[in-house]
Each structure stands twice: as C-alpha cells, then as structure tokens.
Write a structure and sequence with these properties.
With 396 residues, this protein is an alpha+beta fold. Among the domains are: 2-96, Rossmann fold (3-Layer(aba) Sandwich), CATH 3.40.50; 116-179, ATP-grasp fold, A domain (Dna Ligase, domain 1), CATH 3.30.1490; 297-372, Alpha-Beta Plaits (2-Layer Sandwich), CATH 3.30.70. 26% of the residues lie in helices and 26% in strands. The protein is built from eleven helices and 19 strands. The chain has helices at 13-24, 70-82, 91-98, 100-107, 126-132, 157-169, 227-240, 268-274, 278-289, 297-301, 368-372, and strands at 2-6, 28-32, 37-40, 47-50, 53-54, 60-63, 117-118, 138-142, 151-154, 174-178, 186-193, 196-204, 219-222, 244-252, 255-262, 307-313, 335-342, 345-348, 361-367. The strands form five sheets. It has a five-stranded antiparallel sheet, with helices on both faces. The chain has a four-stranded antiparallel sheet with strand order 7-10-8-9, with helices on both faces. Strand 17 (335-342) and strand 18 form a beta hairpin. Helix 2 (70-82) runs antiparallel to helix 3. The longest helix is centred in the middle third of the chain and has 14 residues, at 227-240. It is globular. The chain binds adenosine-5'-diphosphate and magnesium ion. Residues 115, 139, 141, 145-148, 151, 177-180, 183, 187, 210-213, 248, 250, 259-260 line the site of adenosine-5'-diphosphate. The site of adenosine-5'-diphosphate has 22 residues, from strand 8, strand 10, strand 14 and strand 15.
C-alpha cells in the first residue's frame, strides 16, 4: 500500500518506527508535514495539495496530529476521508478524544467507568461541583492538556476555587474531577489497535508526584491486563471512533476508570516496557483495512427520504418478546435489523432464527414512520446518586 504518515516530527521515535516498520513490510511510505497541506474545494470533487502541488494517490493515512494543531490537522484528515482514503482515526474520533470533557461526556452513557467529573462556568457553581465529585483534594484539568501539563491536584476547596477562577479568567476551560486516591500515582496505558489491546503498561509516578506521565518522570513496566480492563480500553476506543488509541485508565477500587483516550499515542515508552513491535502491529492493521474507508452510515443511509436509523427496544414492544426475528413482522414493515445488542454482546446481522429477549436493543434501518410508533418515550430524568468511596464523601 501507499501510506502517508501525517506528522510534524519526522525524527521523533514514533514516526521513525512507523516509517521503518512500513518500509520493512514493503509498503511505500512517506512522512508528510500536516501543516503543508492545502485543502482544495475549488473543483468538482474534494482534493488536496501538498507544498503547493497536487497530492499523489494514497491508499491510507496515519494521522499523528499534535494538540497544538487540532483544528487544521482534523480538517486535513476530514479531507482525506471525503476522498475515500482510509484512515484508522477519523477527524471526528480525533476531535472527540482531544477534548477531555467531550470524551468523558461521550463515554459516560456507555457503562464505562470514569472518574466522577463536573464542568461549570459560573464561579458561584464551583463549590457545589467540587462537592458533587467528592470534595477536596480534587483534580483540576485543562480540557486539552497533554503530558501531565495542566493537571493539578488541589488540596483544599478554597485553593481549588482560586485555581479554577484564575484559569477561567484567562479564558481556559477546566474540568473538576474526583481524585482517585487508591490508584496511588499509578495508571495503566492500553494500546488499542482495531478491536484488541496489543500492548499494555503500568506507569508509576516519580516520588511524591501524583501524575504518572512519562514526561513527568514516571517509570513504566509491562502489565498483563484482566479482561475487564481490556474490554474497557477497547470499548472506549471504539466509542470514540479510533482504531489506533492509547487508553489511560486509573485502577479504581471497583475497576477501571478511563481518564482519557489518546489518538496519537507515543510508542517509545510502551515498546520499551513490553518489547513488543507496536509500530508493526499498527502498520499491519492499516494494510489489512485499507479496502474499507470510513463511511458515515447515518449520513449515507438518511439520504433516502423517509428512511433512517433508529434504535428499537424489545421491552417497549412487549409483543416481540420470545418471538423469532423472522416472525416479528419487522421485515414486512420495511425495517431491517442491522445489529442486536444484548447486554454487553452484539449480534451483527441477526438471522431470522434469533429469538428476541426483553432486554434486547435493535439498531434498525427502515421507514421512519413505521419505526416512530415503536420508539420508546423519552426517558425521564431521575436524580441520581453517584457511588463514591466512603472516605471521599463530602462532609455535611
Ligand atoms: N482523577 C484523577 N485521580 C488520580 N490521578 C489522576 C486523575 N487524573 C489524572 N491523574 C494522574 O495524572 C496523569 C495525567 O492526567 P491525564 O488526564 O491523563 O492528562 P494528560 O493528558 O496530561 O496525560 C494521569 O496519568 C494520572 O497519573
Ligand atoms: Mg494522559
């Protein structure tokens, strides 16, 4: 395949390793400076220039977009997507993951453990938000920090309030997060490629530092993940829309707590810790997927007027419980079931013989009018009580 690595750091360890792994495997690979692309929407179809000249044909790209150029970088990736060039990480996926608040918001509805998190704007709401996540000491984070910069542990509510106020006065958005004390300066980085964790390491903070980032002096060691941690990592990457991702998890008392998902994970620390060929695995995965450029399913399927995608719940359509899919009448009503979600498992392209159960959720494509009557009423919000370790409960 002909592969372009989009990177502004051709000499960085990760870029070099990816390039040489691709070369060793006989691929034609170039490292292209993300900032030298020109997005061209002047002709009949979307196009790209590189260094002012028309870009040659590529089969795939591997974006390594740094935090300082997210906007331009994701625009370039989006342009490749419009040109049907395969990318393991889409512009949407990169944007989702880049912003820690956005990532946490998206993960929060998918039954994935996350540290209790709050986001407020008015200073009058700061104190309640801190209490809500468990009180001081509390973690304060810049939405787009990396390498541990912009992650602060505030020992007291008053200090936390002052830090938040100061940051907000310089127009920096910050989130407020429960301090996961039991993780004790350690965290787990899982490198996800496709639907597998291909390497994992534990990072340990240096001295009395609580941030375990390698750039903050953290040390690394290989770790064997339990299925619970593997699943949390793979599902987080999938939900973000990333096929290559570094998922950071704290080890909470009740299991993994996903802190962030990195769309351009560094390879040096994890290859050193695990002695695994992570770069090679990434290149092999891309070569294997090149034939399947990303398709925005909802966008494309909604083009036929009156048709669209909806999720139908079996329990709100009680007559379907215990019925074979082939006898459900859905097909006759012009409704096709694309996937069937049952607990944590997914049955793709379910067959006629599948017997529907009360908890099933069906992702369907079909006539919107036919599906309207089958869609559950909007869920009413109920006040929720978040479970926190007893020691973290705010004093009252
Ligand atoms: N809520 C938290 N509780 C305990 N430690 C945390 C928490 N959030 C972050 N940390 C520590 O700080 C490090 C950096 O935080 P992270 O959100 O990953 O930001 P960055 O993008 O800068 O790496 C983590 O690797 C972890 O060691
Ligand atoms: Mg991190």
């Amino acid at each position: 395949m002909k592969l372009a690595i989009l990177s502004r750091a051709p000499r960085a360890y990760s870029t070099q390793r990816l390039r040489s792994s691709a070369e060793e495997r006989g691929h034609d690979v170039k490292v292209l400076n993300t900032l030298r692309f020109g997005i061209d929407l002047s002709a009949d179809s979307p196009d790209l220039q590189y260094r002012g000249r028309p870009l040659s044909d590529y089969d795939a790209i591997l974006p390594r977009i740094g935090a300082s150029i997210t906007y331009f970088g994701t625009a370039v990736v989006r342009q490749f997507e419009q040109m049907d060039v395969y990318t393991p990480n889409t512009a949407n996926g990169i944007s989702n993951a880049r912003d820690k608040l956005r990532a946490t918001q998206i993960l929060s509805r998918h039954n994935i453990g996350i540290p209790a998190t709050a986001f407020v704007r008015n200073r009058a709401d700061v104190r309640a938000a801190i209490e809500r996540v468990g009180g001081a000491p509390v973690v304060i984070k810049l939405l787009e920090g990396t390498q541990g910069i912009g992650v602060i542990l505030a020992p007291e509510v008053k200090v936390a309030e002052a830090i938040i106020e100061t940051l907000q006065s310089t127009n920096q958005n910050v989130l407020i997060q429960h301090f996961v004390r039991e993780s004790r300066g350690k965290d787990v980085r899982a490198l996800v490629v496709g639907d597998r964790v291909i390497a994992a390491m534990r990072r340990r903070a240096n001295g009395d530092e609580f941030r375990s980032n390698v750039h903050r002096g953290g040390s690394v060691e290989a770790v064997e993940l339990t299925p619970e941690y593997e699943q949390a990592a793979v599902r987080s990457a999938q939900i973000m829309g990333l096929k290559v991702a570094g998922v950071d998890m704290l080890e909470g008392d009740e299991g993994p707590l996903v802190m962030e998902v990195n769309s351009s994970p560094g390879l040096q620390g994890i290859e050193a810790a695990t002695q695994l060929d992570v770069a090679g695995a990434i290149v092999d995965y891309i070569a294997n997927q090149v034939a399947f450029p990303e398709i925005d399913v909802r966008q494309r399927l909604s083009v036929s007027t009156g048709y669209g995608v909806a999720e139908l719940l079996v329990h709100t359509n009680a007559e379907l419980v215990g019925v074979r899919l082939g006898d459900s009448g859905l097909w006759e009503r012009d409704i096709t079931v694309l996937t069937l979600h049952r607990g944590a498992t997914v049955i793709p392209n379910p067959r006629k013989g599948v017997v529907l159960e009360a908890g099933d959720r069906m992702l369907c494509f079909g006539k919107l009018e036919e599906m309207r009557s089958m869609i559950p009423e909007r869920r009413r919000r109920r006040p929720r009580v978040r479970k926190l370790p007893a020691e973290a409960l705010p004093e009252s």
